[in-house]
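Person: At home tonight, work slowly through the protein below, taking as long as you need, and write a paragraph about the fold.
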Amino acid sequence: MAKKILVSQPKPQTEKSPYFEVAKKYDIDLVFRPFIKIEPMSAKDFRQQKVSIPGHTAIVFTSRHAIDHFFVLCKELRVNIPDDMKYFCVSEQVSLYIQKYVQYRKRKNFFPETGHIADLMPIIAKHNNEKYFVPQSSAHTNDLANMLDEAGVEHDEAVMYYTVANDFTPDEAFDYNMLVFFSPEGINSLIKNFPNFKQKDIKVACLGTKTIKAAEEAGLHVDYQPTAELRSVPAIIEAYAKSIQ
């Protein structure tokens, strides 16, 4: 009988994904089921935060979700984004996504090569005369705001979209041998959906120190996490598959 693994993120769009190669090689049943979902915020709810976007000269984007909901809400709020607005992004991938809404110009888009938010801070520090605006999820942490405060950078933050639990239906089977989590919100969703959840023999894999901490605080034992040898989720799944052969 094939082992059944729940990967709490959307299914890869390409059939050439390493996930499917590992699943086929080791006869694993992979189920892609996000534990969280993104929902838009209304203009009415945004206005209650009493944060004005006009007057800011730079935006900090930490994800493509932030980009989507920022531009959609700005349109709904009838806020015009000036052509000389500067964008500071956590990664090149996020930076390139901006062209979905505005003409992409490298001279006004900035990002670290590493894709780490901490490595974005030296770039922001070189532009400390800007007034920054940070679109956030309802499930945000204060890490970025604290970094900006420590750097003495003028900034405002506001929630522009919701990150909520993706509920399971009562008749949905939860018979997995392994669970893979990518965020603390995923752990919170598990506990919300299954308040009496007992890990027992189920293996748990977590990506990121915050996800690991959330899992441990929820009483879960984290069996797998990225290491120098296990750099990706498919590699972690393969390690688990080998351990049960």
In short: Residues 64-77 form the longest helix (14 residues).
